[in-house]
Amino acid sequence: MTEDVDNQPKPQPTIERLEEQILWYDSRSRGSQRFFKRAKVVEIIAAAMIPFVSVLRTPYTPYITAGLGMLITVIEGLLHLGQYQQNWTAYRSTCEALKHEKYVYLASASPYAGVENAYALLTERVESLVSQEHAKWASTQQQEFKPKA
Q1: Do 21 and 126 meet the contact criterion of CB atoms below 8 Å apart?
Q2: Residues near 21 by Cβ (< 8 Å), separated by ≥ 6?
Q3: CA distance 103 to 50
Q4: How confident is the model at residue 141 (pLDDT cuts 50, 70, 90)?
Q5: How far apart are alpha carbons 133 and 93 in whole angstroms?
């Protein structure tokens, strides 16, 4: 038995985009957080080992100490270059804001309550959140690579 085409649910591209964006920001936030925390743990361990290694009486002590210092410098450089902590918090913030919009919309709560076209309002608000995040990211990238005066 075939159903009437008019009875099929209409696709809701904004809801699909909202779900995709929530998943994307959640994934990127978790990835940035994981990388940042793991790198910091290695950095802390390397820094803590320097005083211990420096008192060892081996011919390799200066090389080990120098290697640990280099490791710390490289890790800190990578963290700064990749902006992992900033991305983690910015992506988490955007993800939570998108989730908030989703649940408020689904509950028909304010600002969606009593609005003639709540779906259009949702579309505008979701796109505004995503655009704001993109603008922040682009601004950060431009400032990061701008020559220092």
Answers
A1: yes
A2: 98, 126, 130
A3: 50
A4: confident
A5: 9
Q: Report how far residue 113's alpha carbon sits from residue 129's, in angstroms, rounded to the nearest whole number.
A: 20
Cα angle at 139 between 137 and 144, to 5 degrees? 95
pTM flag (> 0.90): no
CA 64 to CA 114: how far, in whole Å?
68
Q: Tens digits of per-residue pLDDT, 48-99?
A: 999 999 999 999 999 999 999 999 999 999 999 999 999 999 999 999 999 9
Classify each residue of 63-74 as buried b or exposed e, where b means 16 or more C-beta atoms within 10 Å of its C-beta: ebbeebeebbee
Residue 146 has pLDDT above 90, yes or no: no
At a CB cut-off of 8 Å and minimum separation 6, what does 108 contact? 118
Phi, psi of 19 (to 5 degrees): -60, -45
